[in-house]
Amino acid sequence: MRASTPPPFAYEGAWSVEHATLPGGAPAYTGTIAVRRAARAYLLDWDITAGRYVGVGLARGDHLYVGCGETFRQLGVALYYLDAGAPRGEWSAPELDGAVGSARFESPWGGSFEGDHRLVHTSPDGGAQPWDLEVRRAGEVYAITWRSGDERRAGLGLPMPGGIAAGWYLDLQKLAGRAYAPAQTGPVRPTPGGGLGGSPPP
What we know:
Largest sheet: 8 strands, antiparallel
Number of strands: 16
């Protein structure tokens, strides 16, 4: 599996949000976003007219994929993608301090991330946890559920080249997913693939 590497564009720093829209095109917010590199992951802090939010992100290619919520508690991000034709993944959460775990798909690969899968998330310290992963298309995004014994996570996913960028949070209605990339005419822009689990933050 290929490890996460920083994109050619440096996302770390403080950014002014001059224009943002909700799904459907309605104006959303203005304010600032602070992005801090933490080892192989990124931690984000939004101070915007819609409120204060935090996020954790992973870079792949020239994009930064982020899961956002009101607090870091039970917040996480995962990237699932094809590597040499086989499904793989990587994930992180704020409590890992920038470390990144891996994901291994164990169920037969049917050619699409949409559907039901069995996978194992391995943490940076080597601990492994099996999950049943359910991915369902919901308009332009994906509704995603992880189950492991009595533990359940709910989240959403954004399409990315060759895979899905997924985020989870303790309150799905407060979860947002974002994908950032260098702009053609400015330093950074959100890609069109942002999604919301419920109420309107980033």
